[in-house]
Amino acid sequence: MHLHHTTPATEDEAIARQLTLRERVSHEDSGPAPGAPATVAGVDVAYDDERGIVAAAAVTLDARTLEVRERATATGPVAFPYRPGLLAYRELPAVLDALGRLATPPDLVVCDGYGTAHPRRFGLAAHLGVLTGLPAIGVAKNPFTFRHRPPGPERGAWSPLVDAEDPQEADGPADAHGTERAFHGEEVGRALRTQPGVKPVYVSTGHRVSLPTACAHVLNLARRYRLPETTRAADQLCRAALKAATAHPGGASQR
DNA sequence: GCGACAG
DNA sequence: ATCTTGTCGC
């Protein structure tokens, strides 16, 4: 699974590419069912801005036991600056490299960040899904520019994540108090409570997975902590890979 | 113009 | 993302 990914020269080009690629996204469930026998990979990246280095990790887990099946890392130069809405161009080159080093492709990929919940409905998880063809979902730690009501306190509770900027339907006469209106936009994801009384995570679809299914996968992967085990494992590994790359420049360096 | 802004 | 010790709590 070797995928080449050229870096856009400008932000305009990056945006234009998102608008083209997003037409290939599928929101239908064609991936593994939550809790079914399958492998799920977590991917994440860590940066050393001083040296302009990025380290990525891909960790495959057994979806039922959550045991680690395989780990892979990749390091390289930072190819794109951080820009809200264009995160994929900064993270994907290294992430795709790490994914490609796995002996066996996963049945589902869990990304750090958003998928459909994005200004152009094409965040990191959707981008990765389209490029790899793999089912993918996004799990973010904060609501970005979106709004939501607080979910109930119990594990599994959720509330719609909506794009308040979206001038959706005009329900009734213009309410003088636009407060309620802020929650009436398009549902782009869900604020999902994975642990009782703990801050929710923000789930959105990426590719080949529906929103309800994406949430079920996240709950299945977050049995003990707020974040899915896939995210925790990948986060830990990419940080270790970054330290190794910083400590032994050239050692196991990769492009 | 100002503020907000996944990682 | 990253800079960073101890500390309060289950």
UniProtKB/TrEMBL annotation:
<dbReference type="GO" id="GO:0043737">
    <property type="term" value="F:deoxyribonuclease V activity"/>
</dbReference>
<comment type="similarity">
    <text>Belongs to the endonuclease V family.</text>
</comment>
<keyword id="KW-0378">Hydrolase</keyword>
<feature type="site" description="Interaction with target DNA">
    <location>
        <position position="82"/>
    </location>
</feature>
<feature type="binding site">
    <location>
        <position position="44"/>
    </location>
    <ligand>
        <name>Mg(2+)</name>
    </ligand>
</feature>
<feature type="region of interest" description="Disordered">
    <location>
        <begin position="148"/>
        <end position="178"/>
    </location>
</feature>
<dbReference type="GO" id="GO:0003727">
    <property type="term" value="F:single-stranded RNA binding"/>
</dbReference>
<keyword id="KW-0234">DNA repair</keyword>
<protein>
    <recommendedName>
        <fullName>Endonuclease V</fullName>
        <ecNumber>3.1.21.7</ecNumber>
    </recommendedName>
</protein>
<dbReference type="GO" id="GO:0016891">
    <property type="term" value="F:RNA endonuclease activity producing 5'-phosphomonoesters, hydrolytic mechanism"/>
</dbReference>
<keyword id="KW-0460">Magnesium</keyword>
<keyword id="KW-0540">Nuclease</keyword>
<dbReference type="GO" id="GO:0006281">
    <property type="term" value="P:DNA repair"/>
</dbReference>
<dbReference type="InterPro" id="IPR007581">
    <property type="entry name" value="Endonuclease-V"/>
</dbReference>
<dbReference type="GO" id="GO:0005737">
    <property type="term" value="C:cytoplasm"/>
</dbReference>
<keyword id="KW-0255">Endonuclease</keyword>
<comment type="function">
    <text>DNA repair enzyme involved in the repair of deaminated bases. Selectively cleaves double-stranded DNA at the second phosphodiester bond 3' to a deoxyinosine leaving behind the intact lesion on the nicked DNA.</text>
</comment>
<keyword id="KW-0479">Metal-binding</keyword>
<dbReference type="GO" id="GO:0000287">
    <property type="term" value="F:magnesium ion binding"/>
</dbReference>
<dbReference type="Pfam" id="PF04493">
    <property type="entry name" value="Endonuclease_5"/>
</dbReference>
<keyword id="KW-0227">DNA damage</keyword>
<feature type="binding site">
    <location>
        <position position="112"/>
    </location>
    <ligand>
        <name>Mg(2+)</name>
    </ligand>
</feature>
<keyword id="KW-0963">Cytoplasm</keyword>
